[in-house]
Automatic annotation (TrEMBL):
Basic and acidic residues biased stretches: 1-41, 641-656
Name listed for the protein in its UniProt record: HECT-type E3 ubiquitin transferase
UniProtKB keywords: Ligase, Transferase, Ubl conjugation pathway
Domain HECT: 958-1301
Location of the active site: C1269
EC annotation from Swiss-Prot or TrEMBL: 2.3.2.26
Region (Disordered): 1-57, 634-656
Superkingdom in the source lineage: Eukaryota
Amino acid sequence: MFADELKGNASKKRQEQAKLRRQKLKEERRKKEQEKQKNELENGNIEAPNTKATSAEIDIDSLKKEAAASSSSNKSSSAVEIALQQRKLRNDAKLLHRSATVLQAFRRSYRSTQKLVHEQTDILEKRLMDLQTLSKIISQKTQKRYCPPPALTNTMLNQLLYITHTTARYQSVPSLISDQHVSEKRYYSKISPMITNRHVNLLVVLIQYAILPGLHSQDDHLDPAIVWMESKQGQNKFLKLIRLVLCLIAVKKSSGAFLATDTQAAVLLDFIGDIVGIGEESVSENVVQFCKQYLFKQEVRQKPIVLGRRPLSLGFFDLIQLLRSLLLFPSGQKVNVIPPSADRERRNCIPQHERLRSSAFFALLMKIAKHENDLILKSRIVKEIFTVPILTWKMEKKLIDDLLGSEKKGGMPLFLEYISAFMDYHSNELHSLSSVLAMDDTTLTICPSQPVLSMCANFVQLGVSCPVLNGSNKSLFEYKAATLYFNFMSIVVDAVPRAAFSSRDSEMGWLKKGSVLSPIVLSNVVRDQCKIFTSESFVREIFRIACNKEVLGTDNILKKKDSKDIKMEEELASIKTQSATALAAKEASIDRTTNFWQKSKWAKNLKNIFTGKEKRKDSNKSGKGALMNTSSLSRELASGQHDDIPKPGDRLKKTETQDIESQVKLFFALTRAYSIIISRWGGGGREVINLYTSSSTTKLQKIISESADPIVIPLLNVLSFSTPFLSSSWGIIQSRSNVIKDLHGLTDTKQCSIPVGSRQLTVKIKNGRISFEDEIGSAVLLLMLASLSHSLIVTDDIELHEMQTPLPIHHLRRCILLLKGLIYRACCLDLSQGKEPTHFGLALFGYSSKIMRDLYDRSSRRALCAPKHWIINDLLEDQIRRCKSYDDYTALLKEPVLRVSPYLVSFKRRLKLFERITTTNREDIQGRNDGHSFRPGIHVHIMRGRVLEDGLNHLNKLGSNLRRRLIVQYVNAAGATEAGLDAGGLFKEFWTDLSTQSFDPNWALFAETQDGLLYPNPSSRAAHGGDSIVLFEFLGRILGKAIYENITIQPQFAHFFLSFLRGDYNFLHMLPDLSTMDRTLYNNLMFLKTYEGNAEDLCLTFSVTKEEFGKKTPIPLIPNGLEKDVTDLNKHRYIGLVAKHYVCDSVKEQSEAFRRGLWDVIDKKWLQIFNEPELQVVISGPTNGKIDVDDMKANTRLTGGYTILDPNIRRFWKVLSSFTDQQRADLLRFVTSCERPPPLGFGSMNPPFTIQRVSISSDSEKLPTASTCFNILKLPTYSSEKVLKDRLLYAVKSGTGFELT
């Protein structure tokens, strides 16, 4: 209301007008003042800061003017708002006026200070020049050093500190002497950023001619440092001097050069050395101790230090941290720890002056460490200096030589002394090395290399360059030093990220910001330095020294055979004439007629009591316990009773024993380091990692490679082919008691409860010392298995059996026994414990299973040992017995032992499992084969003259429906349907007729090897056109149907074709498989492989010639192969390509089609529990096709009134025993439509073989007939044995179709 009244008040308007007039006059006066000040400024009478203030005032005045104008024009503003606005303007004007006053005062103070600094600098320079001249004159005249009075030194130091320092004001600044903080404001001195080379010269002269003579003086009254120690002010002064010296050494100018030149830095570094007590002349002990407590911190600084042009605080002194900062950030900025040009310029990416300065500083630190011999100091050097990326590039060669040298002849290199101190100090933390090395002064964004990765690269560079370690000069090699180095590298290699030894062009590290992980590309330069650790030249030289066969006695160990070896050879010799398939069939037939006393466990024990066999004890069970499910050989090794273990009486000379122990310790250290590389980058655990839960393997997948990294190939090449490592490692496994004990723990859960997959190499403290021999047996075994696996790639069967390479056969048998126990424990005993796996344990498990599978596959072609040595007795017997349904049986296929090593389960038991799987699945789909429970089936009409064509038309389109019951009806040549109802027998007859035609080599779908084994004909397409692939798919389905129906067939397939049917063909076995396909071609390739002349003389090219029906066509094996000659350098590749072409490529299309058809009916998981000979037995039963009359007799059912005591039955078995093998096969086909018995014998035949009584009044009344659907032989009651034989042979041989019965 009051404001509205003022609007119409005339006096109020007059007041406002008067106010505006006054403001106008003030503005005019201000303008005059500004012009006056401008003129004075041009004449130099007023300081520049005032200009800023007046200009600011002009801006405020303009704002006032605008505000006044707006207030006059805007009649709607209230009087209160106008008053507040004007008050704010007045306050801003006062603030700017005070600011201008302060700036003017600062400028005047600065100019006066600079004037004083220049004056003091001139005075100090004159004093120091006079002092320098005086010192030189006295030195020339008296040959003594002049020592100025401490008062003069103190005065000159005060002048220097005043010149080189500025004063700043801080709140709560820490004291120089104590760690307490003050709450009040105080002045704090900092190094001036305006230091020039003139100031550095003054400091150098002051130190050289004033401070050092006093420090070295024998008279304490002349030592200025002693005077400074007497007060806190003096101590602060001395610390400022030290800080100034360090700053001049380490900080750069804006131009990129250091503040102190190299000559000046040398003097300053000598000064630092003197005050810590390592100079040539002695210094007061009080001074030395005072300096040490500030120059060497016991704890690592947590906050990062950056050396730049900004002033340094007095709290910064630590020499190790300063050197680390100088190495990391030589430019003074926290960017690009690794120069961007490092990939291209390598060592030249570091400027020479930076290398010189860093080397000089590091050399000082090395002298101090040598003098002090302090464990913590040396440990910090390893932790903080050797974790700097590309450290060796930042050092001069002379310094690197000092690191690689030793203090005394034959001693340990200096950098190894640091490593030893580091391990002693952090002995309880070495298992988490990454945590020990964690530093927060760098991140992956500015330093793309973790500390442990940088440490690995630096020590690899030093180790490869050190003649004491690299093996380049055997006379300089030191076993003790090399053992320490490789033991430590085993810890480092275990801790580095997976990128360290990865062959990928780029690898990621992960930077964690809160809960977010950001990928950072790790430095390829550092990674390349790490990879030198696996270079062929380095590994070859060091392993050649470690694997001295003469010192280790390897040859003698490998030649020895014990009684177990001889017995196994005798067992093998007794079966050597039999093929692998025959051995598999024999194993399947074992104990078919087992009686009660053999089947029942308690009956067996009762029998032993009566026979006195229970009194026999296993003489091999000695020591702490017997191995579980392993051979007595392993028990002997574990208990120390094996013949290869040196006896106590076999003592060597003391020097020889020491040589052997040094050799063995080095061997263990090397094995430990490189077994970790194999376990993490060898991909050995990928075969078994799926056995563990996904939660336990997620972490592992981050630190191990998913497959074998190419970086390990050169390593394995050296171990397998360039050094005697393989034989030496196995010799150590056979002879060293500690290794034997460790390996015994791998198979015996009582001795060591740690699962195989959870094993890891750890460092333990024993008797106050670090021990690296824990699990050393596992490390030796892992690296030996990796080497053996690699060598077997290029080893053919002739080399393995006849040339005894890579190991003698009897030692391979020992290896099989050892690995059998290990795999059994890992698969059947350990997984149930649920412990977390480790990369080392997985690799050990994986390589063991890989070697065993490889050896088992080779044994399937040519036996390495008797079949019983592969299996674990009674394995899965109880599980199979408990199964009732199809789901129960298929669930057993997921058992780890069947997924990884099915050969541990006896073939008979696996065959039984397969038979139960197919039978239960068939009953679920078709119903039981009892004649009453059949489900509706698929009707198929087959004309006897068109078995293949009609089968293809009716059955091929069914696919997986072939598992349903097929009802076959034959149509004779007249077109009439033959009599009879198919309950399975007609299909068996159909399959027999079909296989007889389609697998005939003359039909051109299949070809024969020299041994009469079938494989797809490479020219099948030329013979049958595009229908050949369809025919192969059809035959695969029909074969699957036959296996599914438990029908055995006649054809025998080649080994490599059976491998294709299993779906896991091992391409490493191409050459042995080629020998079965074409022996002549194989011999020619072996001639080329061992040809000592020039391979070019043979005029071969990378091509083969394909011949089809008289037409020859050249086929290149590689692009432009017809023009590429075979030479000595590429002949091994040529041999492999030729074998691949004939064994794989030429039959690939046909094999894949056949396999697709087979897998439509038979799940591939069902087949993968068999090897090739075993699969052949599944398909066709016993190889020789002989019928076991005793087995048939034991499993035959008698019906219609016949009993086992009936004279006719007795005559029948007597007649059957007199038949030839072919006559027995014809009889079996007459009754069952199959001429071969089931793989598991007649006990597995379903329906069982049955003889039904047919009463006759005369011998001529009836012939024997059969019901093939139910495997029934209808046998009349003939009067004599002769009549029975004649009638039976006549009926079998004169069959003209189903109508005969």
